[in-house]
Amino acid sequence: MKLNDSNSIANGLDEQNRSAILQLIDLKIEDDMEKILGKMDAKFAHMEESIITTRWVIIAAGSIITILLAILALK
C-alpha cells in the first residue's frame, strides 16, 4: 500500500480511531524490526565465528609451512 493511500484512508477516520490504528501499526512495525534485527544478529554471529575459524586455520597453516621451510633450510 502506498503512503499516500494510507494517509487518505487515515484522514477519513475520527481522531480516536486514527490514533488507535497508528499505535497498532507502530507495534507491528516494532515487532517486525525486532525479528529482523534478531536474524541479522544471528547471521553476523555466524560470520564472526567463520572468520575466527578461518584466521586460526591460516595461522596454523602458516606455522606448519614455516616449520617445514626451517627444517628444509637446515638440511
How are the SSEs ordered, and which strands pair?
Elements: H1 3-11, H2 15-74
Query: What is the N-to-C succession of helices and strands?
Result: HH
Q: Strand pairing plus helix content: what structural class? A: mainly alpha
Q: Could you describe the largest sheet, including whether it forms a barrel?
A: none
* Average residue-wise pLDDT: 89
Regions with pLDDT < 50 over 5+ consecutive residues? Answer: none
Rough outline: rod-shaped
How many alpha or pi helices?
Answer: 2
Give a count of the beta strands, DSSP E runs of length 2 or more: 0
Radius of gyration: 28 Å
End-to-end separation: 76 Å
Beta-strand share of residues: under 5%
Can you give the helix content as a percent range? over 70%
